[in-house]
Amino acid sequence: MHTSRLLPSLWASFDRLHGEMDRLFEGWGVDLPRSVVPAFPPVNVWEDADAFHVEAELPGMTREQLHISVTNRNQLTLGGERPVEEFEKGRWHRRERGFGRFQRVLKLPAPVDADKVEATLDNGLLHLSLPKAEEAKPRKIAVKAE
Fold first, then answer.
1. What is the full DSSP assignment across 39-73?
2. Which pLDDT tens digit goes with each residue over 89-132?
3. Pairing relation of β-strands 100-107 and 75-82?
4. Answer CATH for 38-85+97-136 from 3.90.105.10, 3.40.50.980, 2.60.40.790, 3.30.2420.10
5. If 59 and its partner were Cys, which of 24, 44, 91, 124 is the partner (CB 3.0–4.6 Å)?
């Protein structure tokens, strides 16, 4: 097997292992240190009564370079490709910004309605609004008097 094919699946395996370790230690209030290479893109995830919200930092990217999907009703995949910055004259002194293909998979705590997901990209900030599926929304229970 070619090394170039092995590396993406190896990194994906490490990401899955890290996610499982995070979940294992989450109950004890332990934060595991992030890997040497930070996850890309960095995200914030929060929820309100009706939806989950995700913000991802994607400087310099266009909407055409992004691929967003929801699978298994609660798994969000952010992917895309950041083009390599090329120039003919000059040389690099420092190159910290990554390039190439990326993929980030986030498991949401409850199912979402994938048909109603909205995404906007403004100045390199992607905002996703993922409405909760009806069965995941909180329900007010009426108390009856006897």
1. -SS-EEEEE-SSEEEEEEE-TT--GGGEEEEEETT
2. 888 788 777 788 999 999 999 999 999 999 999 999 999 999 99
3. antiparallel
4. 2.60.40.790
5. 124
